[in-house]
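Question (not urgent): is this output format expected?
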Amino acid sequence: MKRKFEHRLDRLFGSASPGLLADGLKGIEKESLRVTHDGEIAQTPHPRALGSALTNPYITTDYSEALLEFITPPFRDIRETLNFLSEVHRFVYSKLESEMLWATSMPCLIHGEESIPIAYYGTSNVGTMKHVYRRGLEYRYGRTMQAIAGVHFNYSLPKSFWPVYHDIEGDTRPLQDFVSGAYFGLIRNFQRQGWLISYLFGASPAVCGSFFSEQPRNFSMFDAHTFFKPFATSLRMSDIGYKNKAQANLNISYNDLDDYVRSLTRAIETPYPEYVKLGVRDNGEYRQLNANLLQIENEYYSFVRPKQVMKSGEKPTLAMKHRGVAYVEIRALDVDLFNPLGVNEDQLRLLEMFLILCLLQESPTISAAEREEYEHNQRMVACYGRDPSLTMRHHGSTRTLHDWAAEIFDGMQPVAELLDAGGSESQYTRALAAHRPLIDDAERTPSARVLAEMHANEQSFFTFAMDVSKRHQARFADDPLSAGRLTYFDDVAQTSLRKQQEIETSDRLSFEEYLADYFTQH
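Got this back:
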């Protein structure tokens, strides 16, 4: 396995194109709750000044009307990606009046499920489908889990890389089939080793007591208003967040594109007794899109997804079936509350190196036993990742997190050199060096820093997060957009409102007909 990785590296280093990997496309999707200055979830509609949540390409909502999602285009330069994300934040703050953005993944004060308003996208069929899907999530999982925020990293290798790599591998498949297969190999290795991201970047070891309706099991009391796990890295990635038990037995296959599409489609088409009992409609009002294991593909909460750019109204699985995998979406990042953008340049550079490492390593298909291993490791690192006595499961044996993480970092070193080749700044080598000390000293991780600051300031999670949110708000207020960029985002917002109206007036099918057409497309 290691020899094949080293062979691929040698061939890439010997290629005629220095910096062959350097122009991969990087995009970000970052979620933030809109909250009042009392730290409660905003009950106001999505601000009209931000445009339409249905059609604005840069500013939308996730589950809740109050859960904003900022989307950047993909850029070759990570700094451009972060600069665009900063501009979106500054534009939004120029329009928020009595509200601010919550700075952490775990939510603010929650006054019961009804205090989390479900996102609304207008009266069109596509808008109604998005709303009904979220209503189905409420019935299936509750609203509280859906108020958790995260950062998603979208990444694709440079187009010029693939023919070179195709030749190195001596693969006889058509290029797009090879590309899709390589991305699935990356995904499998990310599943095996992705616990490293929770360890390095997890920033949610504590949660406001209002998150739970009753006393949670296996949690400690930080104070009268805060629950925590002393060694947790990312409660967001634990069973209280997006690694929920309801989907534990779906067994979605990542062996290849065909298996993935087939297993995901089966889950979308297979009735589930509990959801059948719930019913699709009640007195004519939709409760869910269907009564199957999954309503649509996005309901499957994987922390890494293969993706293809979709055409209007196209199912994600069909987009990949017809045109292959175009990029991967990494969904394992907590919001970094120590950065106003929720993520920083060094983190994204390290993540890019890690993804390339996962691509270049040998990646056999995953057995049921190995799947149980990596899911166990993910859970353990999310809840106990900073415990010095924690051991990881690995090929039927055990090893320490420290030793395994050090081995992964050793593998990323030549990847950093490949990415820095032809440049003069050595940004990737520096980013790798900046994160390596976190392996030896868990107290330097974001999750440890959160608890340390809460202890030092004698603050509950809520009070600590409120203070950080207010500091970020002040920072953006002190750095307003230029007049030209403000006009640009204003124009995008107004155009999106017109597009939503056009969609609503052009609908010719009933919602029932629209849904039938959507689910029967091949």
